[in-house]
Amino acid sequence: MANSKISALTSATTPLAGTETLPVVQSSATTKVTVANLTAGRAVSAASLSLTTTPLPVSSGGTGLSTLTAGRIPFGATATTLSSASVLSWDNTNTRLGVGTGSPTQTLSVVGASFTGAAFNGQSYGDSTERLRIGYKDGTPDTGLVPAQIIESTVQLHIASRDNANGAILFYSGTGVVERMRIAGTGDITVSTGNVIQGTAAKGFDFSANTPLAGKTSTILNWYEEGTWTPNQGAGLTLVGAFSSTGRYTRIGRQVSISGTVTGATSVAVTAAGVITSNLPFTVVTAGHGDATNAAVTASATVICTGTSVTAAAAIAATGTITFSATYFV
Q: Could you give the domains of the chain?
């Protein structure tokens, strides 16, 4: 064709199909190339592009959003669409992440609305079993509670707080969600069911917050026990008829209080400095004292506890029963 100015050429039909050919000089020879091959596999630089589809879809490298809102985190709403919500947010100024809130107040703020369910759920590693709920509220175990709930099989532990009752913290457990213990806002601890059980021998209640005397050796109360024991026949007893006895004891810490009776079917007597019984329930470390009387309460004697024995300081003549009591330390 004759040489022509570009301005004199007839305008091509657009958009181009890509199959049109253009002349190019390649290795000093004039050749042709299709429009489609001009950009295939090549980086294209452009100051701006006019989109035929707005917004640009995710499949084409866009966000699928017509606008972005400061602080909101886009997420995949569908396989090909992004979206955002006010309850999933990032505070870039303070470096805070918000879940359930658009205004996080901590490094991680998880906020639940007024609903039945959990603001936070935890699942155990290796399976999808729910193990932990925080911010759980289902109307139980008490109105107004927003507990943390640890779940293991059918046994559950609820740790709950509430604004009433002096801001008490309540502990619930069991399938029936039964209150087991509460710590009041005043610091008082109440065990609702069951007992406080000592887990390790020699451990107990520590009263070191009190100001002790100079001779203090311990502030730990680590023992309580009460029961019965059967006093044996001491060497200082004189019996007529069969021997029988009863005994009770209470131990609080190192202090032991005992009471007992020794009886002869016809009579029993004890000599001065005579042993009434020699099998105390706990061996004496620090001697203790008490009293013994006859059945008619007309004669008495001081008793001393040493070793494992109760010894009368004075004689008590024949009587039906001798009753004694004393306190000593182990």
A: 54-110 (no CATH), 120-191 (no CATH), 226-329 (2.60.40)
